[in-house]
């Protein structure tokens, strides 16, 4: 190898290093979303970022996880609580994704994760998908979450919504059904009794919920 | 005018005399000349700074060089181009097209509140970002926001520290932090 070639090799290597070093730095350091570093302490931001990275490798949406962490920060939660909540949310997204199948929109996935976190069974999500595969499941999933959050027993909440959905109830009527149950609970009725009453009403109107 | 006897004079006159040319050929020649574009002049070219180089740079070349240098710099430093580092895949992390936004009005009755705001995934849960306005002495607070289609989680923040759900909206799941959230579904019947 001539001296000229050695010098050329060194020059090319040096220039390449100058260009590639800044690019490689982010990869090696494990870049953390700047929104996380702006509002969380360093170790919490890193822990949340690792959950986000894991979700990405599983093909799950990552934005809801970042937003969950920001929600925790806004509400003054501890770093440990934030990381736990983000991990729980990521797991729920995974369960919802497997239950709803590959042709699921991100909005459905987020609503499905909400239903899972509220206590819905993965089978209910599967039943909703099977019942009307071509319709968006966002509203039925939001209604299930709401009923569960209002302490309607899981079995009843799922039967009402899945039954109404299977029977072809429109999303507008589903939201009305929810409002009726909510109103009855506010008026002092037991959540399970309010759910039974709603089911009886819809059955009388011709929409069989079971 | 009489012809000069001087032979040199006669010779020069002969050279100055117009050469015989047919009108048709003359017309073709003039036509050809009129169609020929004028030569490019270098008056808009920028001389390069080092003296004696004799090199000049066209404005387009100068602009190209500046843009090229900018692109190279941006590539190396990863700044100034495109969005900042963003691992997002959801609506809030994207540039939502204006025509997909829907105006949503939030309303809360809170007679004793000194301030009320709305925080949710649409504003990255920034508690002071979307401040509600008191519109009646009875304590009716309201604000309108443009939200992307889909479902959004949110809460009302009363007096800067009290997080409450919207009493008229569907409840969201347990947030993991001990305070309730609500859900708003924005858009058509299915809301994606």
Describe the structure.
The complex is a heterodimer of chains A (210) and B (192). Helices cover 77% and strands 0% of the residues of chain A. Chain A is an all-alpha fold and 210 residues long. Chain A folds into 2 domains: 33-100, no CATH class; 103-210, no CATH class. In chain A, helix 6 packs parallel to helix 8 and helix 10 crosses helix 11 (191-204). Chain B is rod-shaped, with a radius of gyration of 39 Å. In chain B, the strands form 3 sheets. In chain B, strands 4, 5, 8, 9 and 10 form a 5-stranded antiparallel sheet that branches. Chain B is of the alpha+beta class and 192 residues long. Among the domains of chain B are: 57-85, no CATH class; 93-186, Immunoglobulin-like, CATH 2.60.40.10. Chains A and B meet through helix 1, helix 3, helix 4, helix 5 and helix 6 of A and helix 3 and strand 8 of B.
Task: Give structural attributes.
heterodimer; A: about 210 residues; mainly alpha; 2 domains; 11 helices; about 75% helix; about 0% strand; elongated; B: about 190 residues; alpha+beta; Immunoglobulin-like; 5-stranded antiparallel beta sheet; 3-stranded antiparallel beta sheet; 3 helices; about 25% strand; rod-shaped
